[in-house]
């Protein structure tokens, strides 16, 4: 039996799903989309049930990627039962989707969630009367406390096992509309389409000229997928793909034209149908909802007084974001350090074993300096990423993320971006990988792409660390702070410029609208925060793993062959020599070029690479930067800082961009754009600086 | 006098009369419950011409001024007479 959880965003679908499936989840993506697909198999009463957590949607008209996924699933895969979740504290708008579901799916159970919130807001809902009004079973739930979830499922199974489809009450449409729907029904009732979908729904969609009506889609299970892992968690594979089998035009073209002439265009039908549904909801609402104290101020009202305040909102946001950053990127440093040390220790142990086994020196070096050093550098920032994802889930579930988008929207609008891009860009300061992944909350794919492509221009914590060490060496005292601020300002300026520039490059049919719900505040549950954190961290690791491993080996080979020669004669050194002509206009010697090339695996390694190249063995970053002061002018150093800050952030972020955009073309474009931009800006600064007589 | 949602001050209430233009945006508004006849309240505005926070049907919505400028409203105490079908 296939059961799907459906409802508006933030009504508690995932909470119910997580409680029911526990860790027994399959997390992947929907075919061709970067929308998470979560399903799980559960067993109840000798029945195997596939439960699907559909993305939240406000209606069944496709708008965002999430909504397209949900709609396609309901239309094409036809789950046996739909568990329609409703937020009791916001029932009026929630029922709009329920009415749409009822028209399409024959077997529906309503889960009336957030009963606790409704109660504190002074709303009483009589679920039995709601069930009576719509003629659909209703179960009361408080998902966050685990109440009513099992009953909800039991009811869904019961409905799924009924011999005949239950009949829910129809939405009464006004007469002029009803007549037209019936006329269309008569035309369609003899076609085979009427056997596939409910007739009334079909007629309405035909009147609205829905493009999917008339198409047959076949779902193809992806059995031949090579790398389909058997891992119970985080399967990246797309379980099904759809293929268009045939597309026929349904009868009724003449009727549609006649209606058009009467002023009933497709837009008009849409509006009239929506309007009738809302009218119907308002009509039946008093039957089951008692609003004891409608003007009572809820927690959300009191919190928003501060959090959304034009005056206090921004300082509060700075405090919250600083806390998140501090925890994720500063407080987590010892954990990252521990990971590095553990890796170094493991490398040593393995090398000792290999020495004992008389393995050749080369292999030992490959393992220690290549694999463990490279992979370790990436693993060391897994704690950062995990903690950041935990906070991200926390902010998203609690409802703060939407508020941050509200406050940040004005600035994003200046760049032609959406308020939700704000958070992704801010996250980039911590690490570009989660920043790029955070673009998933953006509805419009083009907005998403642009946000993803400009994210790398924002310097992440590791880059800022390297930069501040170099700045401290070249610009001692208060000048250093000034230089650092100038670099950050430059990066912001370029982010803005690039956003506006990419707006022109990335074609967009229609500018996306900023119409966003500000959900009530919720206290997130532990499970809801930790499960996605684990899933995201794990999938990041899995994605990055092979790439990082290969890249580490490549870097090692380049820098150790031919063997036994000084650095500038290894392949890497030679490469630096060839690349020196690119660096020359900017005053870079081959060493800097090598460091830039190697920095690609992970930028925090740049300092130690430079250390090796300048012949400073010590690990202390200060001494390495000090060694550089002898070889470079301050102007040269500033140019280096600018180029270092702006060129492709690191391999992990490029891999993430590719995985998230699913486009090799755009990923390469992003890499090329960053490279070219950084060198152009570097050139301008170097020559501009010389012109004005800076040294 | 035609007024648009964008012109309301924080704390003011109004009733939706008409949504101008068509396409995805109007459908989106419909999905969020903005249909003719619905009563709205502007709760607050983000500074510097940022988005508006709007309350309707017992929940909160954030919308940009540009989008609000397409929603024509009338005073909320006036009785809404016509059965509401927008695009007529
Ligand atoms: N107060 C309260 N909060 C809940 C309840 N159910 C879920 N939540 C919270 O509502 C938020 C959104 O839930 P989620 O399951 O992510 O919603 P989804 O978007 O529908 O998947 C989370 O912070 C939950 O902890 C409930 O019954 N009462
Ligand atoms: Mg969810």
From TrEMBL, chain A:
FeoB-type G domain boundaries: 1-162
Topology with respect to the bilayer: Multi-pass membrane protein
UniProt main location, coarse: membrane
Transmembrane parts of this sequence: 311-330, 342-359, 371-395, 449-475, 481-502, 540-558, 578-600, 635-658, 664-686
Binding site for Mg(2+) 2: 18, 21
SUPFAM superfamilies documented for this protein: P-loop containing nucleoside triphosphate hydrolases
Signal peptide, first to last residue: none
Amino-acid positions noted as binding Mg(2+) 1 in the UniProt annotation, renumbered to this chain: 22
Annotated compartments: Cell inner membrane; Cell membrane
Task of the protein: Probable transporter of a GTP-driven Fe(2+) uptake system.
Protein's name in the database: Ferrous iron transport protein B
Automatic annotation (TrEMBL), chain B:
Keywords: Iron
InterPro entries (alphabetical): Fe-transptr_FeoA-like, FeoA, FeoA_core_dom, Transcriptional_repressor_C
Xref: SUPFAM superfamilies: C-terminal domain of transcriptional repressors
Domain called Ferrous iron transporter FeoA-like: residue spans: 3-75
Gene3D superfamilies: 2.30.30.90
GO MF annotations, alphabetized: transition metal ion binding
Superkingdom classification of source: Bacteria
Organism: Desulfosporosinus lacus DSM 15449
Membrane among keywords: no
Name of the protein: Ferrous iron transport protein A
